[in-house]
Amino acid sequence: MNEFVATVVRGLGSGSIYALLALGFVIIYKSMRVISFAQPAFMMAGATLVSHLVLSMNFFLAVLVALLLTALLGAGVERLALRPMIGRPVFVIAIITLGVDIVIRTVVNSFIGLDIRQMGDPWGLEQVGVLGANIDQRHLATLITTLIVVAALFAFYRWSRTGLAMRAASSDQEVALAQGVSVGRVFSLSWALAAMLAGLAGVFLSTGIGLEQNLWLTALKALPVIILGGLDSLGGAVVAGLSIGVVEALVGSYGGDLHPVFGGDFFLVVPYLLMLLVLLVKPYGLFGTREVERI
Amino acid sequence: MLAAKNLEVVYDDVMLVLRGVSLEVPRGRIVALLGANGAGKSTLLRAMSGLLDVHDGEVRRGEITLDGVPIHHLGASRIAARGVKQVMEGRRIFVDLTVEENLRVGAHARPRTVKVNLDRTYQLFPVLADRRKKVAGYLSGGEQQMLAIGRALMSDPEYLLLDEPSLGLAPLIVQQIRDVIVEINAAGTTVLLVEQNAAMALAIAEHGYVLENGAMVMDKPAADLLADGDVREFYLGLGAEGAARSFRDVKHYRRRKRWLS
Ligand SMILES: Nc1ncnc2c1ncn2[C@@H]1O[C@H](COP(=O)(O)OP(=O)(O)O)[C@@H](O)[C@H]1O
Ligand SMILES: [Mg+2]
């Protein structure tokens, strides 16, 4: 039982990271109808900035500054590399985001170096007892922060003037323009938000275990998550992210030899299996809407 | 005054759709713009509201002026902020937002007076007040048209450009929409009304224009247009002998065109 609780919390911790990343994909998708493959770069940029900033300031302040810088980077990329391409085929734009990802990650890698960088976070690998189980503090911190950020994000979309304008632009761009909404601002803001969320995911991913160049691969786990949740659903991104995190952790702990071919690595396949299963029943993901483009 | 002067509009760099069109919408009036499907009415409205861009359209020659100042080079959101608002053909409400959220987006250009304008809009359209929390996609066609008009009014525009508001609505609802337009105008908003329902438009407008194949072919007081033989035949469906047959033919033709476009 204790191990079970510990496993679930660990799953919720990594699930939170998937959720943060997936939210970024969905936010950009909703505004531009494009899947941006630049999310891993923003994730790495955020984490790397923190690992350097903590050398001269408090961890939490470092996170705040790093996230603001990452948001600026996101908005800048949108303005310089994406905005001029509006109207081009979606496929072309997706490839451009892939290029952006590689450029940024190459630069960021030179600031990471070949060794593992410490994040200077207050929890490290410390544990805390919850319901009789020993749980990594970093998983709890990730989960709680994510829940707060998600709540703030939803409140923003639901009640703020700008959030409402973003939803309107997502629903019908031309009509939003006709109401005075600046769709360009909506694009910038979407990229800033997505970059910031990815940066936060990167920070939590590297707390405790440290930051290294290969960590960007984790961002790819957000891909099955957004398909599972529904490309255009923020709520779906959160639910699917947490679910995949938990299922993955459970399979990792209990399903070790579930499959002879994959052996102990079966949990790596789980997100995609889950995605396939759900798509069989719900073609647009758990919460997606129908209009989403299909091949 | 909102005006178009010798306006030429091209789509996709090659398709000349408006060929030197001029039109004047003096402050405080209701002006009707008639014309068959494909004449270029919506294109003229897009030029006035800055939405040509979205359709790969461009003003090649001539200008749109607001009180003498050219505005056709401004973006749509700027023009909306200057008080020119278009209600697009086919209602185009945000189907996944609630009624009230739709209205709030309409106030985007003028955020400080949201509350006053919400109250006013609900007074003008009591049916929207009853459905304020409802997702807009579930409203009936008539309600959606009222929502689209209400949304445009949320930023206190000086000029309201209505693109075929009676399209596809039952006669009773068309009457309601007509009365609402008169009420809006009486409250101080200038209206440019694009219609295929010429009888409705000319009944409430002071002045009317007829656009044909991208050129303005008539520019007369509404009463004169109502009396004009050609207008009666082609737009009111009343031939010399008041033949209803030709009306049905025209309508059938229009419907097919609409489906194709
Ligand atoms: N986005 C567009 N691209 C190319 N041609 C267009 C576009 N929109 C309209 N047109 C053409 O311009 C002409 C006028 O259309 P429109 O302004 O919609 O007429 P109306 O509103 O009077 O029915 C039509 O021939 C139509 O096919
Ligand atoms: Mg039209």
Automatic annotation (TrEMBL), chain A:
Gene Ontology annotations of biological process type: amino acid transport
Q: Name one GO cellular component term.
A: plasma membrane
The record's subcellular locations are: Cell membrane
What sections of the protein cross the membrane?
12-29, 41-74, 86-108, 140-159, 189-211, 223-246, 266-287
Q: What is its main location?
A: membrane
The GO terms describing molecular function are: transmembrane transporter activity
Give the coiled coil ranges.
none
Q: Which UniProt keywords apply?
A: Amino-acid transport, Cell membrane, Membrane, Transmembrane, Transmembrane helix, Transport
Q: Does the keyword section mention Transport?
A: yes
Can you tell which superkingdom this protein's organism belongs to?
A: Bacteria
Annotated membrane topology is: Multi-pass membrane protein
Give the signal sequence positions: none
Q: Which InterPro entries match?
A: ABC_transp_permease, BCAA_transport_permease
Family of this protein: Belongs to the binding-protein-dependent transport system permease family. LivHM subfamily.
Alphabetical list of PANTHER family matching this protein: ABC TRANSPORTER PERMEASE PROTEIN, BRANCHED-CHAIN AMINO ACID TRANSPORT SYSTEM PERMEASE PROTEIN LIVH
Name of protein: Branched-chain amino acid transport system permease protein
UniProtKB/TrEMBL annotation, chain B:
Q: Which Gene3D superfamilies match?
A: P-loop containing nucleotide triphosphate hydrolases
Boundaries of every ABC transporter domain copy: 2-238
Q: Which UniProt keywords apply?
A: Amino-acid transport, ATP-binding, Nucleotide-binding, Transport
Question: PANTHER family from the entry?
Answer: ABC TRANSPORTER SUBSTRATE-BINDING PROTEIN, HIGH-AFFINITY BRANCHED-CHAIN AMINO ACID TRANSPORT ATP-BINDING PROTEIN LIVF
Asked if the keyword Nucleotide-binding belongs to this entry, the reply reads: yes
Q: Name one GO molecular function term.
A: ATP binding
Question: What organism is this sequence from?
Answer: Kribbella caucasensis
Q: What is this protein called?
A: Branched-chain amino acid transport system ATP-binding protein
Q: Which lineage?
A: Bacteria, Bacillati, Actinomycetota, Actinomycetes, Propionibacteriales
Task: Give the GO terms filed under biological process for this record.
Answer: L-amino acid transport
Family membership: Belongs to the ABC transporter superfamily.
Q: Which InterPro entries match?
A: AAA+_ATPase, ABC_transporter-like_ATP-bd, ABC_transporter-like_CS, BCAA_Transport_ATP-bd_LivF, P-loop_NTPase
Q: Does the keyword Glycoprotein apply?
A: no
